[in-house]
Amino acid sequence: MLMQIKNVRKQFNGVDVLKNVNVDVQKGDVIVILGPSGSGKTTFLRCLNFLEQADEGTMQFDTLHLDLSHTSSSDIAKVRKKTAFVFQNYNLFANKTALENVTLGLTAGRHVGKSEALAIGRQALDKVGLSDRYDYYPAQLSGGQQQRVGIARAIAVKPDVILFDEPTSALDPELIGEVLRVMKKLAEEGTTMIVVTHEMKFAQDVATHVIFMDGGVIVEEGAAEDIFVHPKHDRTKMFLKRILPCGGICEEYECR
Amino acid sequence: MDLDLDFMYETFFKILGGISTTLELTILSLLLAAPIAFYMAVLRLNDAKISSGAVRVYVSFVRGTPIILQILLLYSLLPSVLNTIVQTLGINFNVFDAIDPFFYAVVVFSLNTIALLSEVFRSALISISKGQLEAGLSIGLTRFQVYIHVIIPQAMVVALPNICNITVNLIKGTSLAFLMTVKDVLAIGKIAASFGYNYIEAYIDVFFVYIILCTIIQVLYTAAESKISTFRAMHV
Amino acid sequence: MNYRPFDPSFLLQSIPALLPYLQITLFVGISSIVFGSIFGILLAKAKLSSIGPLRWLAQGYTYVMRCTPSIVLLFIVFYGLPKLVDGLFNYQIDDWDRSVFAIITLVLLFGAYVSEVFRSAYLAVPRGQYEAAVSIGLTPLQAVIQVVIPQAMIIALPNFGNSVINLLKEGALAYTIGLIDLIGKGNLIISQNFGAYAIEIYLACMFIYWVMALLIEKVFFIIEKRLDKGQTLKTVQTVKQDKKRARLFLIKGVKFHGPGS
């Protein structure tokens, strides 16, 4: 077991956003979290990287055992060094080039030597298909390219798990495919990933485990096929009906 | 109206000699004020109620009162305060003879600039998206590192035009240093003026010197701005 | 020199003696604001004009004023204007009240500052507002007066308020040419006491100025709230920006601890 998260609770201004969420992550898992907006899936993901602080909950990560509500800053630093986060709106450092964005986590965060960091950075950018954009600033890149830099920034630090927060939601439809292809490639290489997304085809093709959340709880989870083809819960069925063009079973639904 | 052009020509070069004092006063005040102002900006953004309230009152007071009164007050206050300190400590030191008024001027203009700069820093920091901090933290940088590598460089670009304004206003403001007997551009002009009652000629000289000074400052800032904002300038 | 402790009661006592002279300060300030605003409107019009030389003249004037210390301008006006008028019209104005020279100086400065405020506020109203007005049959002049300017005024208000506060503060320089205003009177009291009580008097003056600044700020804030019914561009933009970017410090949950923590 790589990561075991238990009993996560979180309130915002008195409203329960997460109520008792449990997730287990094995090495090599691709866990896709689905759910309507406001279901708490993004908050959950952010709690894992301490971008939000949970009110309750524990996390077992490798040898670390943490209380999510009272985590020391040194433990937070340890977890953050083993994880990486890909943001919905990319959050590339606006004052750094693509290559600098990718290498900063290495040179400043992990004290990797400059030349080694550059080599790793180039490799990461090559992997996401941006070998011709090393020296471009974020403002010079399209949304899809920016998000691929975001992914390269995440893989460059060689994390145990990468957290994706709706990585394609801010993109124009024609740019979504290039990002999903990169993510699929990572999954095939055995990268451990937790992905919050609305891309059903991606979930179907790539996920080893699908979680459906609604109202701050996990309503249903299981293999992709179970969730998509034989959903048990009414809330899951309704959600799938709304979001899938074919109203449920979706063999013809093409990856964009 | 007849202007004594010879006098104007001669005086102009005399006045140029005051530029170094004016610039020293400006630059020293800015450099002293900047770190304190930054710290104050951070305090304001913090949740700590007492310290951020104190900073708010300080900024409001400095911005709500004429600088000439700040000068008059501190120039009456500082020497006696220093003298009291020196005497309580039992040091044999004559504050009134030994301290150059330039020192008081630096204190006055620094205190004034701190308030103005802290507002500029604060609004610049607020303008940087929270995602920049989160992204830095998520790849394992410390908060301090994110500030050094990401947030401050971006905030500087936002703040620079305002810092330029503050500098120009500060240069103009230092013209009041003559009230503290500092020999800056205006003070030299004033002395020359009263010497031969050629007031208007001397002040027109002073006027030109300030226009030249401010123009140079603004050109420098514009150059600096285009240099550090390369990442914003280019778009697809 | 002789030292005595700071005397807060003298500070309070001196305020009634000073306040009558606030009238002079306010008279100079308000006259300068009125005439300066008119001058500023003319300058802004010139800057927006299609006639090149007029535009350059107005812009050049603003630039020069931006670079000139107020006290230098005050001295030039005070010493130079009588000479100029004497030379041109052979007329003596040396004995005019000193407040006139202060007002002239402040009008010259204030006009330049607010012309920028007016100009940018005018340009901040979207072109579509004018086009929509013309499209429903208003004349260009009507469109500007009834649609564009009311919106521009609201946009200009906060900066105009700032300029007013700054003008009052610059007005404090007038005592240097011998005007007996608030500070002038304060200095008289100080010299009557042979230099004592300077700190108390200056502090009293500062408090009076501070209260004025806070009041003006408050008044402009109230006017702005009254006039702004949510129709201005500014409000729309703020809402949009807030939604688009979660700001660094304003979001609950992640608290800001400052660098290093």
Please name the defining characteristics of this protein:
heterotrimer, A: 256 residues, alpha/beta, Rossmann fold, 38% helix, C: 261 residues, mainly alpha, MetI-like fold, 10 helices, disordered C terminus, MetN_ABC_transporter-like (chain A), L-cystine transport system ATP-binding protein (chain A), transport (chain A)
Would you kindly provide a written description of the structure presented here, covering whatever features stand out?
The complex is a heterotrimer of chains A (about 260), B (about 240) and C (about 260). Chain A contains nine helices and ten strands. Chain A is an alpha/beta fold and about 260 residues long. In chain A, strands 6-7-8-3-9-10 form a six-stranded mixed β-sheet, with helices on both faces. In chain A, strands 2-1-4-5 form a four-stranded antiparallel β-sheet, with helices on one face. The longest helix of chain A has 16 residues, at about 175-190. Helices cover about 80% and strands about 0% of the residues of chain B. The termini of chain B are far apart. Chain B is globular and about 70 Å long. Chain C is built from ten helices and no strands. Chain C has helices spanning about 10-20, 20-45, 50-65, 70-90, 100-125, 125-135, 140-170, 180-190, 200-225, 235-245. Chain C has one domain: MetI-like (MetI-like fold). The longest helix of chain C is centred in the middle third of the chain and has 32 residues, at about 140-170. With about 260 residues, chain C is mainly α. Chains in contact: A-B, A-C, B-C. The interface between B and C is large, with 57 and 55 residues.
